[in-house]
TrEMBL record:
Keywords of the record: 2Fe-2S, Disulfide bond, Iron, Iron-sulfur, Metal-binding
Record Pfam families: DAO, Rieske
Species whose genome carries this gene: Lentibacillus halodurans
Protein name in the entry: Glycine/D-amino acid oxidase
Domain of life: Bacteria
GO cellular component, one term: cytoplasm
């Protein structure tokens, strides 16, 4: 890799580039299994590991390659410090449930550590303190309030006036004894162990529906069927909604990571600021050197400025605060947030207790994904889990954020209508290489991308989920939907649901 301080031309996640994962076949027949898991990220793989250890027959399918979704693109902090959340949880759920939330995260951390110990996994796991910091007067009192919530919940912590990282800080809230690791080095061993215990894995196999008879049956895009006793939807956005109305109960956001080397030695710790735009910092080990992971710049999927601008903002921040000696990787991730900020983990609806969802991790997938795997596998194994009720998707909490969700849905309606009317008049002939535009072809709103070799790819921009219009994401070269976050490659293939079908291709004359 060239040694450069410039932004890499193509996105690539360090985690995926530093581990080689085995390949698995595509499903080409109908099969029967006990538990079918859809989605090969931390939730699906951990659940497969836990269930196969207990002798269950498990099959896992993924629409793409294993660990190529959010888990392959995370910051991989293993922490109960999920931003400023505990005061809010106490207000909305009460002290006992807020305490359960913290305990669930710490149990997930313990489960990860026990698994590392059991299999002697070399995954750069390290205990680190986690900090929320602020350089804004208006957030200093919020951190004080959050500290009081920590005290009520007996969370080991300290309010500080500085942090180990050399950045301007007015106040910092430290949560002691959190951790970080290389998620793919860890999960690769779980895959190996689960396969030894009989797990079957199929990649490039997309689930599109569930049929019911006596048992649930997953239907794949190629119309093969997986008949089973239980389905675990660990696919980020549930592909099967069961009238649980998930698109109206969650919103998607994208965020960005740059991985750089600096001339400074990393002082330890994991950091996130309280204010916007988000700035999160941790380091990892790359061939014995510190690789600094700087992330943030969240925004609603498919909306806002050119996505390359978000990478540039992180680059400027990294350069100003730490000085970049080498810009090694850049990548982005998508996360879903629920109405009350607590993930939805459990039966997809009250009446369907053999089809599970695990979603809405709000960027904290290492702990939330592990909690989900444990709650759902305990349920299948008929074991009690003290956290199941807190996360149950059918809960209803009267929350001030309901108003925010009403406006989110208004936002969806706005995009549904406005997207159909707006398009740029760019002439496709004038399009530069590696750029895209939206135009009209035979009256239809059409997205056109020109690749490096001047080959054109044209797609109908109507999203296959509920018909909003997708927008170009220049940082990742994808078409992203502003309504519920579906994402498509420039050829129109689905990268991220809830859409299940590719965009229609358009013939250019
Ligand atoms: Fe719902 Fe596109 S993701 S309309």
């Amino acid at each position: 890799m060239a040694n450069s301080v410039n932004i890499p031309q193509f996105p690539q996640a360090f985690w995926r580039d530093s581990v080689s994962l085995p390949d698995f076949p595509k499903l080409n027949e109908s099969i029967r299994t006990e538990v079918a898991i859809v989605g090969g990220g931390i939730t699906g793989i951990t659940a497969a590991y836990l269930l196969t250890r207990q002798g269950m027959k498990v099959t896992l399918i993924d629409a793409s390659d294993l660990l190529n979704g959010v888990t392959g693109h995370t910051t991989a902090k293993i922490t109960a410090q999920h931003g400023i959340i505990y005061d809010e949880l106490i207000q909305h759920f009460g002290k006992d449930k807020a305490s359960l939330y913290y305990q669930a995260c710490m149990d997930a951390k313990q489960l990860i550590e026990d698994t590392i110990q059991t299999h002697q996994i070399d995954c750069d796991h390290r205990q680190e303190d986690a900090y929320i910091f602020t350089n804004s007067d208006s957030y200093v009192s919020q951190l004080e309030t959050e500290k009081k919530a920590y005290e009520q919940l007996d969370i080991p912590s300290e309010l500080t006036s500085s942090v180990p990282l050399d950045i301007p800080v007015k106040s910092g809230l430290r949560m002691d004894n959190q951790a970080q690791f290389h998620p793919l080095k860890y999960l690769k061993v779980l895959v190996d162990e689960a396969v030894k215990n009989g797990l079957d894995i199929y990649e490039q196999t997309t689930a599109v529906d569930i049929e019911y008879n006596k048992h649930p049956t997953i239907v794949t895009r190629e119309e093969h069927r997986i008949n089973c006793n239980y389905v675990i939807q660990a696919s980020h956005y549930p592909f099967y909604d069961g009238e649980g109305f998930y698109p109206t109960r969650m919103y998607p956001e994208r965020s960005y990571i740059v991985a750089v080397k600096t001339s400074e030695t990393y002082p330890g710790g994991m950091y996130i600021n309280a204010e916007s735009p988000t700035r999160s910092v941790r380091s990892t080990n790359m061939n014995g050197e510190d690789l600094w992971l700087i992330s943030g710049e969240n925004h609603k999927t498919g909306q806002g400025k050119s996505t390359m601008k978000h990478y540039e903002a992180l680059q400027q921040y990294a350069e100003k605060q730490f000085g970049i000696s080498e810009f090694v990787y850049r990548w982005s991730a998508q996360d879903l947030t629920t109405m009350d900020k607590v993930p939805y983990i459990g039966p997809v609806t009250k009446n369907e207790d053999n089809v599970f969802v695990a979603t809405g991790y709000r960027k904290w997938g290492m702990t939330n994904g592990t909690i989900a795997a444990k709650i759902i596998s305990d349920r299948i194994l008929d074991e009690d889990n003290p956290y199941a009720e807190l996360y149950v998707p059918s809960r209803f909490q009267a929350d001030p954020d309901v108003r925010k969700f009403t406006s989110m849905n208004a936002d969806v309606a706005k995009h549904m209508i406005r997207g159909k009317l707006e398009y740029t008049n760019d002439n496709v002939k004038d399009l530069s290489a590696d750029d895209a535009t939206v135009t009209r072809v035979n009256g239809k709103r059409t997205g056109v991308y020109k690749d490096q070799d001047h080959q054109l790819y044209a797609v109908d921009t109507t999203c296959k989920h509920l018909g909003c219009e997708v927008n170009w994401n220049s940082g990742d070269r994808t078409w992203d939907c502003p309504c519920h976050g579906s994402r498509y490659s420039y050829t129109g293939e689905v990268i991220e649901g809830p859409a299940k079908e590719p965009l229609n291709k358009v013939e250019l004359e």
